[in-house]
């Protein structure tokens, strides 16, 4: 017999906001939206929110897309096409299709839901979980749903516990002793602490649980307000804090960990430095993010490729990978790979070396290239003898070098370099 929590997820849907470009990722989002950016060797960023929903027991999902959505839509059609309508399961992709006004794209996060009210209505659900499609984390949404219902809240906001000194970068919740939100402050200079620890603050994760009937009325009201920016964090949540009941849900209560003493893992990989570090961290001996967890798998589209192959065994020409993740279809031919993450179908050649490299799919590295602290975009052809990561001034002439010393390499950058030489 199904328990109450199972009935909750059965009458709930996940609405994933995946329309953002993610401009701080620079050229990595020139051709794809941030949720479609590759992560972890074989996944895309959006797979984490979708997998959390699926593993939580939610079988009704919608994904709102807008910016350069083709690769995201194609990925979801290929990797998330196992939902069966006859079992009352759905995954709908909702591009900004000017349903309300032929001149109107999605104006904000709340407007993205408002423009699809009729589709959400058709799901016949009691609760809607609004999710951002661009963060890396593992979370059981069922726990948050249960808190929302038991507290009688109008909205429950997922919150990270962050050091107060770092909280100015977030939308911060001030709460009372019962975790009721008393104010919502966008990037405050002096963030409030929590009643139980004045040295930490609660920062919004961009995850919200609503009763659908309540949210539906609120969206209609917001859409009619010409002064609204039609945004959950900017308009709807502050309004509920002021006029209704908003509760904070702490991520530590529902995060899925790889051990009882493991940290609550959540990452915004919104800059090239953060993206590079989160991927390279996976090569550590015991990474904080457990991708090997069969109990909470990260589902994705998997190409049919052969196993990785390592060839040549000579002193200066040995195909090897140490403290690295190497995906299927890779051929490491006489290349030394260290502390690196290689996505599907990367081919490297003799006498080359990769150190702390994040290499996206279908990259070819020619002989004698030396690459250190790099992110290489999909399909790039690294020319013979290219050296990156040893002379920042030279690298900056042709490539994007970040404040953290990571070099982003795209094919367009290499073509400009070749044309100039």
Automatic annotation (TrEMBL):
Residue ranges of every copy of the Glucose-1-phosphate adenylyltransferase/Bifunctional protein GlmU-like C-terminal hexapeptide domain listed in the record: 306-409
Alphabetized PROSITE patterns for the sequence: ADP_GLC_PYROPHOSPH_1 (PS00808), ADP_GLC_PYROPHOSPH_2 (PS00809)
Nucleotidyl transferase domain segment(s): 14-283
A Pfam entry, by short name: Hexapep_GlmU
Stored InterPro entries: ADP-Glc_PPase, ADP_Glu_pyroP_CS, GlgC_bac, GlmU/GlgC-like_hexapep, NTP_transferase_dom, Nucleotide-diphossugar_trans, Trimer_LpxA-like_sf
GO biological process, any: glycogen biosynthetic process
Annotated pathway: Glycan biosynthesis; glycogen biosynthesis
Site, as annotated: Could play a key role in the communication between the regulatory and the substrate sites: 66, 105
Keyword DNA-binding annotated: no
NCBIfam families: glgC, PRK00725.1, PRK00844.1
Protein family membership: Belongs to the bacterial/plant glucose-1-phosphate adenylyltransferase family.
Subunit structure: Homotetramer.
Entry function: Involved in the biosynthesis of ADP-glucose, a building block required for the elongation reactions to produce glycogen. Catalyzes the reaction between ATP and alpha-D-glucose 1-phosphate (G1P) to produce pyrophosphate and ADP-Glc.
Entry protein name: Glucose-1-phosphate adenylyltransferase
Gene that specifies this protein: glgC
